[in-house]
Amino acid sequence: MDSLSDEQLVSLTQQGNTQAFNQLTARWETSIYRFALRNLGNSEDARDICQEALLKAYLQIKKLREGGKFKAWLHHIALNLIRDRFRSPRSRTEVRSIDAEDQQSGPFAMQMAEQNRTHAAMERGVMMRTAEAILGKIPEEQRWAIMLREYHGFSSEEIGEITGVPAATVRTRIFYGLRSVRRMLGEQGAG
Amino acid sequence: MTDKRREEMRDGRRGEMTENPLDPRLEKLVALLYGELSGDEERMLRRLIEEDDELRAHWEDLVASRSFLGTWDVTDQPPRFVFVDDDAGVESRPVAVPGRVGWAARLRGVLTATPWAVSVAACLVAVLAVSGFRVTRTDAGFAFGFERGQSPAARDGDLSRLDPASGPLASSRMGREGTLEPGGRASAQQADERVPYFTKEEFDAYSTGMIQAVVALLNDYARQRDQQVAGYLQASLGDVVDRQTEDYNELRSRIEALNVGLLEERLRSRSNIDRIVGSLGGGSAAQAVDSTITPGEGVIR
C-alpha cells in the first residue's frame, strides 16, 4: 500500500479497509504530532491531540469528498483540537517567554549545564528555545500559518483550507508574523 | 515607490496584530520567500527589491526571520497509532504501539508463546508433506487429497498408529484400493476413476486423528522418558545405599577395633590399680572401674 496515493487510500478506507487508513496514519502521524508538539510544548498533550485527530478522521472520513486533500483535512482537525485546548482551562501551560527566563532556568543556565557539549550544540539549543519562545509570543493565527508553511510544507492555499481563510490572508498573517519575529529578535539582540 | 504605496506599507507595519490587507507587493514577498511565484513574477519582484530600499528592507527581514525559525528543529517521533478491526462490533480505536515489530520478532513471539501447538503443527505439516497431501481448488471449493499414484501404504507410512477402521475416519467409505471416496457426494465417474480426494469434514476428522496420534506419540515419549529417569534414579539410589553400607561396616569395624584396644588398656589399668590397691591393703577399685566401663560399650549396633 506504500505506493498508493492519499486519494486512493482514502477511497479504500471509505469502503471499510482499515489497513488503508493505517497506511494514511503512518504517513501523516509524525507531521500531526510535531505540529501539536510545537504548539502545545509537551509531548503528552501532543500525543493526545495526535490520537484524537486520527480517531476523528477515521470516524468522519466518509465526509471527506476530496481524498487528495486528506493531509490538509487531518491538519485542520488537529488545528481545531489545538484551538479547543488553548481555550480550555488546561490550555498551554507553558509558552516560554524569553523575558521571564531568569539566570537559573534560562538559556544561560542551560549553557552552564551543558559545558560538556560542544559550543555549536549549545548555541543550537539556545536558538531552538528562543525560536520556540518567540513563536509562542506572536498571535496564534500568525503562528499557525508560519508553522504550517515553515515546518510542514503546506502552500498558502492549503493553509487557507486548513484555517478557513483565503490564501491572501494566509500570506498576510505570515508577513506580520515574520516581522514580529524579526522585531523580537532585534530586541533580544539575537538578530 | 509612490507615496501611496509607502503609506500602505506603513499601515501594514502598524497593523502587526491585525489582518489588514497588505500591499500586494508585500504579499508577493511572502510568496517569493516560499517559492510560490512563477518565473516571470519572481524576476519582476527581484528587480523591484533591488530598486526599492524599503521593499528590500522588508525582504531582508523576512529572510532573516525565516532563517532563524529554521533552527527550531523538532525530531521527536510520535508513538505509532494503529487502528484495529474489531469483529465484535466495537468501534476501531487507535492503539499506540511501541514501535514497528519485525517478522522475526513476531515469529519468535509465536514460537515462545505456544511451543506445543507449534510442535504439533510442525509434525502435522511434516506428516502431510511426506504423505503427498495436496490441496486442490475445484469449482465447488477446495479439495483435499493425496497425489495420484501414491500407494495407501505410503500414505499410512507415518501414521501406522492410526487405524482407519477404528479411527476418526471409520465413517468414511473406503475405496477398493483403500482410496478415500467422497462421503456420498462423488459422482459415479469420479468413483470409477477413484479420484483421491475427500471432503472438508473428512479432512477435519483426519487431521484431528493425526493430531491425536502425534499427541499420543509425544505422551508415549514422555512416559518412556519418565521410566528411564525413574530407572536411573533407582540405580543411583542403590549405589548410594551400597556405598553407605560399605562405609558403615568399615566404620563399625574400626570402632570395634578401637574398643578392643581400649578394653585391653583398661584391663591393664585395672590390674595395675588392683596391684597398687593390694599393696596398699584396699580392694574395691576394680569394681568401680567395671561400673563405668563394661565390655562392648561403644559398639554401634
Assign a percent range to the helix content of chain B: 55-70%
User: Number of helix segments of chain B?
Assistant: 10
Percentage of residues in DSSP E strands of chain B: 5-15%
Shape field of chain B: elongated
Which blocks of ≥5 consecutive residues of chain A have pLDDT under 50?
92-114
Mean pLDDT of chain A: 81
Structure characterization notes:
The complex is a heterodimer of chains A (191) and B (301). Chain A is mainly alpha-helical and 191 residues long. In chain A, 71% of the residues lie in helices and 0% in strands. Chain A contains nine helices and no strands. Chain A starts with 5 loop residues before the first helix and ends with a helix. The relative contact order of chain A is 0.10. Mean pLDDT of chain B is 68; it is low at 8-15, 98-102, 150-192 and 288-301. Chain B contains ten helices and five strands, in the order ααααββααββααβαα. In chain B, the strands form two sheets. Chain B has a three-stranded antiparallel β-sheet with strand order 3-4-5. In chain B, strands 1-2 form a two-stranded antiparallel ribbon. Chain B is elongated and about 150 Å long.
Record keyword descriptors for this entry.
heterodimer; A: 191 residues; Rna Polymerase Sigma Factor, Chain: A; B: mainly alpha; 3-stranded antiparallel sheet; two-stranded antiparallel ribbon; 10 helices; 59% helix; elongated; disordered C terminus
Helix-strand blueprint:
The complex is a heterodimer of chains A (191) and B (301).
Chain A: H1 6-14, H2 18-40, H3 43-60, H4 70-87, H5 107-113, H6 119-137, H7 140-150, H8 156-163, H9 167-188
Helix pairs in contact in A: 1-2, 2-3, 2-4, 3-4, 4-8, 5-6, 7-9, 8-9
Chain B: H1 3-14, H2 24-33, H3 39-51, H4 53-69, E1 80-83, E2 94-97, H5 103-113, H6 115-130, E3 133-138, E4 141-146, H7 152-156, H8 188-193, E5 197-198, H9 200-280, H10 285-292
Antiparallel strand pairs in B: 1-2, 3-4, 4-5
